[in-house]
Design brief:
By secondary structure, the chain is of the alpha+beta class. The chain is built from 4 helices and 10 strands, in the order βββαββββαβββαα. The chain is globular and about 45 Å long.
């Protein structure tokens, strides 16, 4: 059973009709911790006071980015994913945001908020593969990632978003 949950925030930019974020809005984790410095979706550990993992995802999005519940509508529970280096099991949820700004990132956890367009993630030139090594892996492994706007999206964040991008572009969920 997953003990962590994340929100994959999606919204339409006010300046265009293009979908954003993963839709791919992403906060970057502050330095430190097992996944520090990586682009990540808002989320975290389930608390005993959370009714369920959806409540965990909503609470964490509020704590990390200042996303009040009245600005977030959960659209779908996504398949559970596991991190490959730490073994965390994460329950992600796709959420539509109303009025995404202003962000209020929690400075202790979020180094910056990075917003990426879904269409940019779908571009063939954004896709890459490379070998990386980690202390918990016996040998370097090939990973898939996106490079967009000077940022890399990889690991569990990539694996959550990768199947969503074509579905968001196809309009499966109204944003």
């Amino acid at each position: 059973m997953p003990s962590k949950a994340q929100i994959c925030p999606a919204y339409r930019s006010r300046s265009s009709s293009r979908a954003r974020a993963g839709a791919t809005l992403r906060p970057t984790c502050a330095l430190g911790g097992a996944h520090g410095g990586q682009l990540a979706l808002p989320g975290g550990q389930r608390d005993s006071t959370d009714a369920d993992l959806a409540a965990t995802a909503l609470r964490e999005a509020n704590e990390e980015l200042g996303l009040a519940d009245d600005r977030v509508e959960l659209l779908a529970a996504l398949p559970v994913v596991e991190t490959q280096t730490t073994g965390f099991r994460i329950a992600p949820f796709l959420a539509r945001l109303t009025v995404p700004a202003p962000w209020r990132p929690q400075e202790r956890e979020i180094a910056e908020v990075v917003e990426l367009r879904v269409a940019d993630l779908a571009q063939p030139e954004a896709r890459a593969e490379e070998f990386r090594e980690f202390p918990t892996w016996p040998a370097p492994q090939r990973i898939r990632l996106w490079r967009v706007g000077g940022h890399e999206v990889w690991g569990v964040t990539y694996r959550i978003l990768e199947p969503l991008v074509p579905r968001l572009l196809a309009g499966e969920w109204p944003l």
